[in-house]
Specification:
Layout: H1 2-14, E1 18-22, H2 28-34, E2 43-48, H3 52-57, H4 62-68, H5 73-87, E3 91-97, E4 113-120, E5 125-132, H6 138-158
């Protein structure tokens, strides 16, 4: 993905780093990043926190999950900020949502919305996004989410 290649080049040049905490994308973003030569200079860490239990273990507030649901921008914000803090990265990316399915353990939240947050530690600022997914396969939906994250992250780091 060309946008991710550009992100790696910019972050390397600026000596900045990023980390991810992914849920519904299952490590897909980290995989796409690590497919690019030189990514080890910028990607510090990636966690796949598919369950609420491990989101909480990685610092996501149980109270936020209980109040807003695990499928919310508030949870994505917790994910992005906590992973940036845990790894001392300049940017943290948190991704949560449902890819056209019902989750019997978390009945709240839309079944076809993915929320993602990009946290800039340098600015102490959240960039909040959501994407309605509508492709028939999980793989295609993940690809759409990763593509949008790459577009938004590139916009942020070029500012």
């Amino acid at each position: 993905m060309e946008k991710l290649r550009e992100i790696i080049e910019i972050l390397t040049r600026e000596e900045k780093t990023l980390s991810t905490m992914e849920s519904c994308t299952g490590g897909g973003l980290a995989n796409a990043i690590t497919n690019i030569e030189g990514s080890s200079e910028v990607l510090k860490y990636s966690a796949v926190t598919y369950s609420n239990e491990y989101k909480i273990k990685m610092g996501v507030s149980k109270e936020v999950i209980d109040k807003y649901s695990v499928y919310s921008i508030e949870t994505a914000n917790e994910m992005s900020k906590n992973i940036a803090g845990f790894t001392n990265s300049n940017y943290g990316i948190g991704i949560t949502g449902k890819l056209n399915r019902v989750d019997k353990h978390n009945l709240y939240g839309s079944d076809n919305i993915v929320y993602f947050s990009i946290y800039s530690k340098d600015d102490d600022r959240f960039y909040e996004y959501n994407l309605e997914v509508s492709k028939p396969s999980r793989k295609e939906n993940k690809e759409d989410v990763i593509k949008m994250i790459a577009e938004k992250l590139l916009e942020i780091i070029k500012k």
